[in-house]
Amino acid sequence: GNYCSRPFRKEKMKKILLLGIKILRNEGWLNTLQDGFSKNPFFHGIIAEVPEQHRTKEGHTKIGYALYIYSYSSFVGRAIYMEDLYVMPEFRGKGVGKALMSKVAELGLAAGCHQLNFTVLNWNKPSMDFYLSQGCFDVTATIGYHCMRSEGETLKHLAQL
């Protein structure tokens, strides 16, 4: 494809947010700026960009992104977790998602990671098919544990606040 990928930069974040980053559901983009661009960021990101002559009908040149974090498993050691992979609908099927995911995998290997982990929504069959076509596999049935969460008042209670 005729596009490039590069790390997020703080000054470009407002434009990236126009893509519809799902992490904006709660705190909004000011927290996103702080969380992703502080001295110790909570996440990292890669953006896919096309030249001006290939911009969208709305004028966007930023056409996709991947958000990721580094994690650790007591079983396998270093891992990378891809929190989000998004490509604008008109650019899907053109290798953009594959290139973004490949870059996340490359960064993970460079950091000594042994796994790339991510989740897929139950209803998102096109994404599931894409990941399976890339050699990924569904560990839900064989992993032997459930994904659990604590949030809001329960999280405060757990922290004894």
Automatic annotation (TrEMBL):
One Pfam family hit: Acetyltransf_1
Family under the similarity heading: Belongs to the acetyltransferase family.
InterPro entries named in the record: Acyl_CoA_acyltransferase, Diverse_Substrate_AcTransf, GNAT_dom
SUPFAM superfamilies: Acyl-CoA N-acyltransferases (Nat)
Full protein name: N-acetyltransferase domain-containing protein
Originating gene: LOC116317043
Originating organism: Oreochromis aureus (Israeli tilapia)
Domain N-acetyltransferase: 16-161
An example molecular function term from Gene Ontology annotations: N-acetyltransferase activity
Keywords: Acyltransferase, Transferase
